[in-house]
Design a protein that fits this description.
The chain is of the alpha+beta class and about 400 residues long. The relative contact order is 0.19. Strands 1-2-10-7-3 form a 5-stranded mixed β-sheet, with helices on one face. The chain has a 3-stranded antiparallel β-sheet with strand order 4-14-11. The radius of gyration is 21 Å and the shape is globular. Helix 5 crosses helix 7. The protein has one domain: Cytochrome P450 (Cytochrome p450). The chain has 15 helices and 14 strands. The two termini are about 30 Å apart. The chain binds protoporphyrin IX containing FE. Protoporphyrin IX containing FE (HEM) binds next to helix 11 and helix 15. It holds the Pfam family p450. Belongs to the cytochrome P450 family. It comes from Streptosporangium amethystogenes subsp. fukuiense. This is Cytochrome P450. InterPro entries: Cyt_P450, Cyt_P450_B, Cyt_P450_sf.
Length: about 400
């Protein structure tokens, strides 16, 4: 069977995309000094037990790469529960649901702007700007500043691609310093906006975050900036990957594409299956707090675990025919958006943007196929699976 990974030459490390299984569900990698977790039940156990498997991975990285204040994703209970409750107060499902008309209008505007040449570069024309503008507008920072923060975020990802606990080379230190510098640009930028909202509140999410109060407690300036940071970064790459990956999955299976075109009520299920089959975030990280036995291995305390949710999503112990893209799976308990207390807070937004954008794309382009002469380019990070460039042909001729 030729897979999408074979057709387009995806990262060799992404063996699960080629229908291969790991030798063991849990194994130690002496090259990086980290443990790899590939199995579904093992991943589920880790994500469901924050007491044993901590999200505070900052203690494992060199000091220069440690943020002054940990963000939501790196906190454990009880701090995590407190902060999540506070930010959930501002970032509610209703706030997201109300964005649907704006997401549709933006999608149409962006596609109007894309020259009608019979071609579309999905990432530059739609999948990148759409989520960034949506999250920027929601936060209350100008969407037109996206070129400014794109360069910081892109450089952050470039610099953080290769990390090893074993090879603490000078190059790695320089890379980490570079990443931290870019992160600081973004934090300073958001900090200025947040400080401004304290003085002059507006109808936006930054103001709501500044004012959010639970049990008499408010977010500190650093906490507001940290959370806005996560949202802006998450808004940059995640939905971009989701949209690109979904279009690629449908492109590889014309019968599924025809089905999705004919019955748009199936789009949410198509998106869920895309999250399972081509999971954008391939790996999450955790640290063991204590010695623990799982997946047939004895793992000591203070070990860094890479939880490969993308591989777990292809575990035949959980999913029948895991290498078949089948949107009719029901249930589809994939781990693409995480699980447990850190389950993706942006899931309703990602799902909504994915559904609305895909629906409009299918409406506007009766023909939408990849171009064999101009293959997609993928993000170079081994921890992510997503397109960086996706040229599409929009006319059959
Ligand atoms: C957490 C995936 C879109 C905000 C997570 C986690 C995953 C994930 C796997 C769990 C991290 C962990 O357990 O360590 C995705 C994917 C997306 C997406 C695949 C798109 C398809 C978004 C968007 C936003 C967002 C659009 C916001 C604008 C967050 C936040 C967390 C999170 C704030 C941290 C929650 C916590 O730690 O309690 N996401 N995400 N995500 N995501 Fe997303």
């Amino acid at each position: 069977m030729t897979t999408i990974a074979d057709t387009w030459g995806l990262h060799e490390g992404h063996f699960w995309l080629r229908g291969r299984r790991p030798d063991q569900p849990v194994s130690f990698d002496a090259g990086t000094g980290m443990w790899n977790v590939y199995g579904y039940p093992e991943a589920l156990r880790i994500l469901g037990d924050p007491k044993t498997f901590s999200s505070d991975t900052s203690r494992m990285v060199p000091e220069i790469a440690r943020p002054a204040e940990r963000s939501l994703t790196q906190l454990d209970p009880p701090m995590h529960s407190k902060l999540r409750k506070l930010v959930s107060h501002a970032f509610t499902p209703k706030v997201v649901a109300d964005l649907e008309p704006r997401i549709a209008a933006l999608t149409n505007e962006l596609l109007d702007t894309a020259a009608d040449t019979g071609r579309l570069e999905l990432v530059a024309d739609l999948a990148y700007p759409l989520p960034v503008i949506v999250i920027a507008e929601l936060l209350g920072v100008p969407g037109s500043d996206r070129y400014l923060f794109k360069q910081w975020v892109d450089k952050m990802f470039e610099g953080s691609q290769r990390f090893s606990l074993v090879n603490r080379s000078e190059e790695q230190e320089r890379n980490l310093e570079f990443v931290m510098e870019q992160a600081k640009h973004l934090s300073d930028y958001l900090g200025e906006h947040a400080a401004e909202r304290r003085l002059r509140p507006r109808a936006d999410l930054l103001t709501q975050l500044v004012e959010a109060e639970v049990d008499g407690e408010r977010l500190s300036q650093a906490e507001v900036v940290n959370f806005a940071n996560i949202l802006l970064i998450a808004g940059h790459i995640t939905t971009t990957m989701l949209l690109g990956n979904t279009v690629l999955c449908l492109d590889a299976q014309p019968e599924q594409l025809a089905r999705a075109r004919a019955d748009r009520s199936t789009l949410p299920a198509v998106i869920e299956e895309s999250l399972r089959f081509f999971s954008p975030f391939a790996a999450l990280s955790r640290v063991t707090n204590v010695d623990v036995e799982f997946g047939g291995q004895q793992v000591p305390a203070d070990q860094l675990l890479m939880v490969w949710i993308a591989a777990a999503n292809r575990d035949p112990r959980q999913f029948a025919d895991p290498d078949v893209f089948d949107p009719s799976r029901d249930p589809n308990p994939h781990l693409g958006l995480g699980r447990g207390i850190h389950f993706c807070l942006g899931a309703p937004l990602a799902r909504l943007e994915g559904k609305v954008a895909l629906d409009i794309l299918l409406d506007r382009f009766p023909h939408l196929r990849t171009d064999p002469d101009e293959p997609p380019l993928f993000l170079p990070s081994p921890n992510m699976t997503g397109v960086r460039k996706l040229p599409l042909l929009t006319s059959a001729g």
